[in-house]
Amino acid sequence: MISREELIKKVKSTAAVPAISMQALRLLNDPNASVDQVTKCFQYDPGMTANIIKLANSSMFPARIPATNLRDAILRIGFKQSLEMLVGMAFSSQLSKPVSGYDLDAGGLLTSAVSGAVYAQVIAKNLKLPHSQLMFTGCMLRDIGKILLGSMMEVDVDRIIEEVSSHEIAFEEAERKILGIDHSEVGAILMESWNMPDEFVAIVRFHHRPAEYEGPEEIARVVKIAHIADILSAMTGDNYGIDGLSYRLDKNVADEFGLDEELVEKIIFEQEIEFEELKSSGIV
User: Fold this and answer.
1) Closest to 270 in 3D by CA, of 59, 49, 5
2) Of the chain's two ends, which shows fewer C-beta atoms within 10 Å, N or C?
3) CB of 283 within 8 A of CB of 66?
4) Sign of the C-alpha dihedral, residues 218, 185, 135, 255?
5) How far apart are CA 124 and CA 131, in angstroms?
6) Residue ranges with strand state E in the chain
């Protein structure tokens, strides 16, 4: 079996982040970004352009007059959300690959990624928490480490599942026991090697273990939202893979946010509506 040190070295040598994502991330962090700058990010990719226009004309953004061009679509959706969508779509080819180690068919990881990202937005809205501009994309990338562990490294998932079952531990705990590392840490190392924002790194590294994050409160809040979103996405069966029900909701986080059965049902209902809109728009 590959050693932890060899695995980390291999992760760091993985292909660079899509250039268009870095351009979009720079604009996300630029308060002076203009619609023309945002439009230029999309205009050379007809597929992305078509998806954004289709999304702008969906029931998520009701308007009397349909958006007929990219500029109008971006203005309707908003600069920030358009850029978040762009970053997600730029990674969609990687997230669409089958991940045999986690029993994810082609597109399964992408479906899970977007499902969790939509859950995060709906949770923040229902809890009336500040909306981080990077939260949607960070949640989309939360399980990117699975691509490396599940495909490149050919994880012996049977041993991990046996560990989960025999010792009644969470899936990522079993990963660490068998492999010396888990998919969250692999993903975080990848984010760091790509010089991604701290918020992305924190979401990816700690979305299964939010209590372990020690950093700014605004990022800690997003990590907790990502944790809940991940659990709800697994609960509702959005193509999560073999590990889907082997994670645990942090009770302290649930109590902190006042998650009761009624609120959870409301969040699930609203997420299903928004998620279906994204799927019909070609984002997923």
Assistant:
1) 59
2) N
3) no
4) negative
5) 6
6) none
Q: Give the 3-state secondary structure of residue 140.
A: helix
Instruction: Annotate 41-72 with b (16+ C-beta within 10 A) or e (fewer).
Output: bbeeeeebbebbbbbbbeebeeeeeebeebeb
pTM: 0.80
What is the Cα–Cα distance from 25 to 120, expressed in whole angstroms?
Answer: 19
The tens digit of pLDDT for each residue in 210-250 reads: 999 999 999 999 999 999 999 999 888 765 655 555 567 89
65 alpha carbon, distance to own chain's centre: 32
Calculate the average pLDDT of the chain. 82
CA distance 166 to 145: 25
Tokens for 115?
A: 């499902």
Residue 279 and residue 58 in contact, taking contact as beta carbons nearer than 8 Å: no
